Amino acid sequence: MASVLEIKDLHVSIEGKEILKGVNLTIKQGEIHAIMGPNGTGKSTLSSAIMGHPKYEVTQGEVLLDGENVLEMEVDERAQAGLFLAMQYPSEISGVTNADFLRSAINSRRAEGQEINLMQFIKKMDKQMDFLEMDPDMATRYLNEGFSGGEKKRNEILQLMMLEPKFAILDEIDSGLDIDALKVVSKGINEMRGENFGCLIITHYQRLLNYITPDHVHVMMQGRVVKSGGEELAQRLEAEGYDWIKQELNIQDEAAE
């Protein structure tokens, strides 16, 4: 049976200011969803709140993974339950190699005695790095330290492919990428697509969706999902912008954050 991630009436505040004002969204394994919207509408707030960033205070609502409220879990427990976040600005960790980080992350999700052995890990990592056209030396470099923007984004997709989560949240994974890097990142996401994987892509631009065809596209404005559709919705947004949605739904301009 496919897993389901349900966001129900989610309200989130930062320093007392409400950013998310009742987000509702259901994502099933086997589906790719894309969220688009103008700057300051709460898209990145949504991803951070789901994964438990302490800056974001959930004041109302639930995030259910197969019926269990992940908001009651610690951050590491959310990851172990099958959630993955590719951050807009990945952190640099000096002194920890990319390979050591990935092997520790994989084993943290496995029961004692079921850890991946070194040869299995190396074989899998080499295969995925080759698929993503990554320099083999990146395995022994410190995590994200000195990485270019494109290298950091590819590394996020490498982590995704190595960890194989139930659901991935990709926060502006296309940010700052040239066309070649965008194609490689998209190739990795498409490789993950299947009945055991669900994905929420947060993006400003339709160009990413030229390479990854979403099953559902949602528009966020003023802290809510205000419109949903298929890939044709993203294409219209690229051609016409967001004003037609504001007019259609009588939405007045307001800074959400």
Care to describe what's here?
Helix content is 34%, strand content 28%. The chain has 257 residues and is of the alpha/beta class. The protein has a domain at 4-94 and 164-249: P-loop containing nucleotide triphosphate hydrolases (Rossmann fold, 3-Layer(aba) Sandwich). The strands form 3 sheets. A 6-stranded mixed beta sheet has the order 6-9-10-3-11-12, with helices on both faces. The protein has a 4-stranded antiparallel beta sheet with strand order 2-1-4-5, covered by helices on one side. Strand 9 (167-171), helix 6 and strand 10 form a beta-alpha-beta unit. Helix 5 (149-163) packs parallel to helix 6 (179-192). The longest helix has 15 residues, at 149-163. The chain starts with a strand and ends in an 8-residue tail after the last helix. It comes from Macrococcus carouselicus.
